[in-house]
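Run log, item B.
One chain of 836 residues. Sequence copied directly from the ordering sheet:
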Amino acid sequence: MSFLRAWLIVAVVSGVSIASSLSLALLPQPAAAQAVDTIVVEGNRRVEAETVRSYFRPAGGRLDQSEIDEGLKALIGTGLFQDVKISHAGGRIVVSVVENAVIGRIAFEGNKKIKDEQLSAEIQSKPRGTFSRALVQSDTLRIAEIYRRSGRYDVRVTPEIIEQPNNRTDLIFTIEEGVKTGVKSVEFIGNSAYSAARLRDVIKTHESNLLSFLANNDIYDPDRVEADRDLIRRFYLKNGFADVQVVAALTEYDPEKKGFLVTFKIEEGQQYRVGSVDFRSSIATFDAASLRNFSRVSAGSLYNVESVEKSTEEMQIEASRRGYAFAVVRPGGDRNFEAHTVSVVFNVDEGPRTYIERINLRGNTRTRDYVIRREFDISEGDAYNRALVDRAERRLKNLDYFKSVKIVAEPGSSSDRVILIVDMEEKSTGDFSISGGYSTSDGALAEVSISERNLLGKGLYAKASVSYGQYSRGISLSFVEPYLLDYRLALGFDTYWKQQKSNSYTSYGVTTLGFSPRLGFALREDLSLQLRYSLYQQSITLASAYNNCNNNASNSSLAFNPTPAYIQSVLGGVDPTNSTSSGVYGYGCYGDGESSLPVRKELANGATWTSALGYTLNYNTLDNTKNPTDGLLVDFRQDFAGVGGDVTYLKTALDTKYYTPLVSEIISVIHLQGGVLSKLGNQDLRMLDHFQMGPNLVRGFASNGIGPRDITYYNYGTSGDALGGTKYWGASMELQMPFWFLPKEVGLKGAVYADAGSLWGYQGPTSWTATGEVNTKACPTCGLQYDDGNTVRSSVGVGLIWASPFGPLRFDYAVPITKGKYDVVQEFRFGGGTSF
């Protein structure tokens, strides 16, 4: 037994050894290292054999199995080949390749909404490039995604491959665009403080309506919906809801409506007011209370996160100016849930000593680097200040050169270094527009203009426009260099020619040719100053029928056509209003409707040059410059004429608008304005330099409809031209509200208002010795009678404001309550235009 057991053990062990040896012999053995010159390439047509061999070129001149595998992977990764095989024959390495076809042409069929050029730019397959099935599949998905982004979720894209001789392939993408898939409804759950209509006004996603074909904000875009969540949250935080949460944005496709239903779920929480405002500093040498003047938050006001953020930014920048480069201002707040108040505390602490290592720019293919970098108040090597970085990001967005701007900080080469990455996506900055419009004062008007906001990628602004209208026409050229000599100084100039023709409100026309350079700079983020110089020439144009003393009774084209008996009484030396008078009646030159004395005198004096220096101080805290709902806009202007030229005066004007939201989406607008024209020296003021007012001061009156007016022949059925005044004031209260029963996208708002104001103080010429008159006996000296009462004009009215796809339009109907005896009323007024 022992012998048998031992024999079995030996046999088993031997068997295992034999089996193992046999198995190893059957496995493929690693190839011996091969010389490079033994590589043979087969099947290649366009790709050179030497190019293929280059993927198998080791440093030592010989190949082992691992190096062959690496070369195989790299060769397949080029995308030049459908298949690659490697074999060994007679001690040689044979690389057999099957080349991919070459794309002859790429075509798109069935696409109507998106042009071929746009699709070609988006796909990776290119004519004369290598055909790849994986790439074609990727391009198919990309085309479908482009259509989905444009609101067409029913799109179908089918690639078709057409084989051609010489290993060439044509690629055809057949597209079934489907119908537009819009947003059919936008709803809100959990909102009680604000209506759904008000919240729809906050977000960018809109419901489809009859005018949706003119815009694309009704197209379902998941990125836009996600951004809307943040807009809703910011809106609530701005209005005191410190605990608000936009829990979810739910989207669902409704096959019956063939569109998306979007629902935002909101948890509002309580509305808070500011209980107290305190300032604390952990820096021993820094007095936090000294920052109080930079706070936009006050006790008792509605808690506003935007005001807190702006206060924090301004405080941190001020601390940096005082030498505390690493100081960090952090706002804090303690909620009193019972009293619904927030105690705001601004904490000033010493932040980490971090420096900016580099500022890297990405995405600016057209805009020059220095145009972007000059918007930063910090540079490489400076202390890292997040408030200044946020300000730079806001400035870059306001340039309107980019679709998006995002600045992020990444770790630098050491723990105290950061790298700022500025990611941008550029957009078109040129505009070509053909505009047309009509207003009750200016008539029909058309304008062609071309402008560029980022000329040559240098941030320059240029615009040229030509306008031609029923009563006005003109040409203008504008240019602005926003950073003069690398300082934040905007240098610009305007050259213009304008011609205002006579119309139903003025008997004369005015031609103006001028040039005006200007220099503007920001004193603060909300305060700016502009200095300017104006040089322009003005001349009066007047039809001959309005500039004679013929007293032609048959002239029916004029405003006043006196009877023959009246003309005979004038020429005979009898004042028809005074039967006891004798001699020549001195108003004969107005007998058949001639223009007013100041107009005729200006015409006789010829062209006049005005040379003036001026400035504008502008304060702007509006939340939106195009459609403001909150904030203050103050514009103070002064111009001094007399730096050379033919006229002298000092003109001062103030214009203030205050917007504040009331209840139920009603916006209150308070508008105050006033101006004074002061005479300097002994030189008389021209009529053309006076303020001319009408609906721009009090609605319900015609252009040039209020203020001093020539009434020389008012008793005989006509009044002359508006003379203008040297002083005016105006006050207006307006309430703007949407039409809640209409979709917001329609863009209609209503307005009710009350206006009051006055214009007075004519100081122009009142007498003039006429020369060259046709009938000098009837007009030896033309006098002027005019009304100049400081009457308060007032009106009430309603308006319709339409942000239409054709441009902004406004309709007003105002009824005067009080007016001057000689004022010209115009109850209905319309104005607007379009660009396309």
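Observations after the first pass:
- The mean pLDDT is 80.
- Residues 2-26 form the longest helix (25 residues).
Flagged for discussion on Thursday.
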